Amino acid sequence: MAVATLAPAVPYAQGFQTLEEETTIGALPLSGELPPWLSGSLLRTGPAKFEVGDQAYNHWFDGLTMLHRFTFGDGDVSYGNRFLRGKTWDRAQRTGKIPYPEFATDPCRSTFKRMQTLFAGPEFGDNANVNVVKLGERFLTMTESPISVQFDPETLEAAGVPFQPPGMLTTAHPHLDRATGGMLNYAAKLGPRSSYRFFHLGPDDSEPEVIAEISVKHPGYVHSFGLTEKHIVFAEFPWVVRPLDLALKGRPYAENFRWEPERGTRFFLIDRATGRASEPITTDAFFAFHHLNAYEEPDGTIVADIQVYPDASLVEDLYLDNLRAGGRVAPGELRRFRIDPHTGSVEHERLIDVPFELGRINYGHNNERPYRYAWGASAAPGGGWLDRIVKADLDQRTTITWREDGYWPGEPVFVTRPGGKAEDDGVVLSVVLDAERGGSSLLVLDAADLSELARAEVPHHIPFSFHGQFARA
Ligand SMILES: [Fe+2]
What we know:
The protein is mainly β. The strands form nine sheets. Strands 2, 30, 31, 32, 33 and 34 form a six-stranded antiparallel β-sheet that branches. The model is unreliable at 1-5 (pLDDT under 50).
């Protein structure tokens, strides 16, 4: 008798499958006890639908945006989720087709469309599935195409486009400008003359102001940047694009970038007061999505901590086919760069000996400043999908770990205890996939020792998402 051989199931594959269901639940089943001071909402964004009609998105970054809300109060956690009903969603519903190009999916490759894009400028969708940002009193969900969407933090309903960045690409990782309460962010102006731009947007404003500009022939891919009290720390990795290729080649956006390691990585230090950019400071080639933090030492040395990879092949690893098949996922390394702005020398060292990604810090107290602790998602030493949470002590260069068989955590968001003095006084919140149950849970850990305080079960799975913010009540 022939016995069918089944491929071993990938236990976390459900995290890359569509969730159709939208729910509002007053109180999730809860184990453990929530800290009484924890009051407010964890707001997260991420891809949740990977097909439109009979078409499928290619890459984890492409899926249609869903917003999630976990609200804490009176010892309970309530939950809501809702697709971002913006123009991408509307057009997908109306046409039954993928409506706009995404990071690695391009539905419209006709020559006519390409020429139209070249002369009239591209038309962008608003599939803002990367990060949630609070700007003044407004909540935005953001991505790298230039359309952020404001939303209602209670109902998760879309509420319009709050501003237009000064370029065709931007980041979903703006920094808080402490002096104004506004945001500092990046935009790439692409064309015959391309440039990297940094802009400020006031907390109530809709008109960004360009504060610095660096011309560039072949722009690099930019996902985030670092900020010290005096400088913007901009790292240009050698994963670069010829801007005309974006318009003419007819390939999905990400496929136009080329890894050119001979260029090295170029740091630019931008003086926040004057907008003046340093000459480029070149070091070894590497790639990263996420800066963790940066600060100045008293002698002017700039310290920049970045979650790095030897090259851009991580982007390939994050195609959905590979992820669902349990394929390779490169491990991130938390690397400290020490940049001497006077001599242009750059030194670097590995800070901890375990993989580190989606790192968070006590942002309110420690961004731009010296700091000791970071929380991140991690994996087995050789790589693989994220299966644990680590707290890194960057003074001692040690880590502690939360891990449980069959659970697959996402970004750990640090929430400081009101009145807490210690840098790690608070909790971390992480949405974990419970593969066996086929549902996700919200995990509440003590930020100091990663002991579990509480866990709230959502009845369905939540596709792995990128980033979120805690909004205090
Ligand atoms: Fe990110």
